[in-house]
Amino acid sequence: MTERPPHGSARPGGRTARTRAAVLAAAYEELDRDSFAALTLDRLARRSGVHVSTIRRRWRTVEGVVVDLLAEHSSTLPTPDTGDFRRDLTQLTQAIADFNNALRNRNVIQGLLAAAAHDSRVEEIVRAAFVRRTEEVTLIARQAVERGEIPEGTEAREVIAALAAPLYYRMLILRGPIDERLVHTSVEATYQAARSGVFVPKGDGKGDRKGDPEG
After folding, report:
1. Where is the HTH tetR-type domain (predicted)?
2. Range of 124's domain?
3. Cα–Cα separations (whole angstroms), residue 18 to 14, 15, 31, 49, 200
4. Do 91 and 128 belong together in one domain?
5. Per-residue pLDDT tens for 75-109?
6. 213 in a domain, yes or no?
7. Which residues, including other chains, have CB under 8 Å from residue 53's CB and lie 6 or more apart?
């Protein structure tokens, strides 16, 4: 007897997978045309061809669909591994800029953050998504420590936070694009700070380096 997959699981190429792909594609297209606030389950149903009851049963709300969409697209962002700390920071920052400069991606993030202010479930999902992605890219700093490019004891998460903070401040607070100059200044500020031991906790004793940081 063939064992049946668990209810709701997505078999590659199966109906569940096709339904998910159609709904997420519809959400992405809608957000390219309009704001998060204008998105409804009915609009998703019309554009995707999936019955609204099916969408509601699987995702419950528009926020549920968009959280899934964010996870789908943010997972495509690479974690650079060039063997050079500054180059890794540059590639990561440029990838973040390219992702967030796309109108639909910006609408997704801004809409979810607005929804999170009123819905603790959305808040937790969004926070978990950002924490997970941050943990993935800490590899950049951890490998830089192993190569001796930055001091032992460097807090990898603090490196990534310092790199990303100016980008999200520009996008979410100032509502402006992440331009080439901001990419450059964010990378250089983070690189020089990491090289000089700024991200090593005080009292660790591991932040001292022989010689001056490279320019």
Report:
1. 17-77
2. 72-195
3. 6, 5, 20, 11, 47
4. yes
5. 667 799 999 999 999 999 999 999 889 887 888 78
6. no
7. none
Tell me whether residue 185 is in a domain. Answer: yes
Distance CA 3, CA 185 (A): 55
Both tokens of residue 89? Answer: 């920071």
CA–CA separation, 142 and 155 (whole Å) = 9
Query: Each residue of 106-146: pLDDT tens digit?
Result: 887 887 788 788 878 778 878 888 888 899 999 999 999 99
Domain shared by 59 and 83, yes or no: no
Here the contacts of 25-33 (C-beta below 8 Å, separation 24 or greater) are 26/50, 27/65, 27/66, 27/69, 28/69, 28/73, 28/104, 29/104, 31/66, 31/103, 31/104, 31/107, 31/108, 31/111, 32/103, 32/104, 32/107
Q: 14 or 179: which carries more pLDDT confidence? A: 179
Q: Is residue 25 located within the same domain as residue 123? A: no
| Gyration radius of the chain's alpha carbons | 21
CATH number assigned to the domain comprising residue 34: 1.10.10.60
pTM, 2 dp: 0.73
